[in-house]
């Protein structure tokens, strides 16, 4: 008894134990041995070396010839040790059973050997996608590569100027994508992307590409000041680059999160609603991307503040008091990100404005009717407003 493990077979523990303890039958002198054919790999293609080995306990010294069959078709003969046949697998495809006919002076014996998977077809459907726009690439960019195969694709290469500048081997998994790891001046050049399958069949794609290594030069504007509330607009006002414009994105980042507004095909003016994020300090950005994937970026600080300030009258005659002479109204206003101004309102109209803390106003009752109202309002730097309570006076 002999045990042969193949790519497609399974052996149970019991069968393995039995094979190890079983005593093989003695090989009778003058018998034709069983001879098995095998290849180094389960997947084969092209001209593939085939080697031979005897069954367990059998002797090949009397063999005068070995003939190899592939699915019953004779494909080669060897007449002397070391036994081996180069099998031209062209004309075969898929699973193929190898058999060996051993010949001695006393007769012949044919034995089935391993089954192999023949693949002589190159990978198909090779596609190459560029970072942003077809045919444009820049230093550090990456080409997305895909292909199909009867077995599976195991590697890819990028060739520029006759030199392999990037490669992938999928022995450990991953994808076929290739980095543009070559320094070339801006302009047109040719490239070749080549993929290979498990057997070594190769498919290649050669094409012209435009190299652009430069970032776009951009300018931008916004309706937001140093602090903002509610919705505001961010506009890409200028773009200068050798490659076509692809997309504009507005950025609103803080240390915890990066936020991007807009996508390919977006207009050059975008609206951001600051109420979608918590109040706080952010970095506002403009990002323009060219056809090669190069990015031009501008940044500036921005405070998002959608909470109104606190304001109150701290010193003034009591509500409903009678007043005849000029009197002072003192107010207090606070905000996390600063107060822009505090205004005095008499009968609902702005009388005066103060922009310095310790906000103080003088009211002359003679300028108003026998009965009038007074209150203050505060604006923070984002434009949020809050009013104090109203006091009514008589004179």
Automatic annotation (TrEMBL):
InterPro entries: Ig-like_bact, Ig-like_fold. It holds the Pfam family Big_7. The keyword Ligase does not apply. Keywords: Signal. The keyword Signal applies. Residues 279-306 form the Ig-like domain. GO terms for biological process: carbohydrate metabolic process. Residues 1-28 form the signal peptide. This is Ig-like domain-containing protein. It comes from Actinoplanes digitatis.
């Amino acid at each position: 008894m002999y045990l042969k493990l193949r790519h497609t077979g399974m052996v149970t523990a019991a069968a393995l134990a039995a094979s190890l303890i079983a005593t093989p039958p003695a090989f009778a002198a003058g018998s034709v041995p069983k001879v098995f054919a095998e290849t180094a790999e389960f997947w084969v293609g092209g001209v593939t070396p085939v080697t031979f080995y005897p069954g367990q306990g059998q002797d090949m010294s009397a063999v005068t010839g070995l003939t190899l069959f592939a699915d019953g078709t004779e494909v080669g003969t060897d007449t002397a040790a070391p036994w081996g046949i180069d099998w031209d697998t062209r004309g075969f495809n898929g699973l193929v059973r190898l058999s060996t006919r051993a010949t001695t002076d006393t007769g012949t014996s044919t034995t089935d050997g391993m089954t192999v998977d023949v693949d002589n077809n190159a990978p198909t459907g090779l596609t190459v996608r560029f970072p942003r726009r077809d045919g444009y690439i820049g230093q550090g960019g990456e080409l997305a590569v895909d292909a199909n195969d009867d077995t599976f694709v195991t590697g890819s290469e990028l060739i520029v100027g006759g030199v392999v500048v990037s490669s992938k081997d999928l022995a450990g998994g991953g994808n076929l994508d290739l980095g543009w790891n070559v320094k070339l001046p801006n302009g047109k050049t040719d490239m070749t992307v080549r993929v290979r399958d498990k057997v070594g069949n190769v498919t290649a794609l050669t094409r012209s590409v435009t190299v652009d290594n430069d970032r776009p030069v951009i300018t931008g504007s916004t309706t937001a000041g140093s602090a903002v509330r509610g919705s505001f607009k961010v506009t890409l006002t200028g773009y200068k680059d050798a490659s076509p414009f692809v997309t504009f994105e507005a950025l609103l980042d803080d240390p915890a999160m990066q936020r991007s507004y807009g996508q390919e095909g977006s207009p050059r003016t975008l609206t951001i609603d600051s109420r979608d994020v918590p109040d706080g300090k952010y970095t506002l950005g403009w990002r323009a991307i060219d056809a090669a994937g190069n990015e031009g970026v501008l940044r500036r600080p921005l405070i998002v503040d959608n909470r109104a300030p606190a304001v109150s009258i701290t010193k003034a005659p009591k509500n409903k008091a009678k007043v005849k002479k000029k009197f002072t109204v003192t107010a207090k206003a606070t905000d996390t990100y600063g107060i822009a101004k505090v205004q005095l309102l008499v009968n609902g109209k702005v009388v005066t404005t103060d922009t310095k803390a310790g906000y103080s106003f003088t009211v002359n009752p003679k300028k108003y009717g026998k009965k009038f109202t007074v209150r203050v309002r505060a604006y923070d730097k984002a434009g949020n407003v809050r009013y104090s309570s109203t006091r009514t006076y008589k004179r």
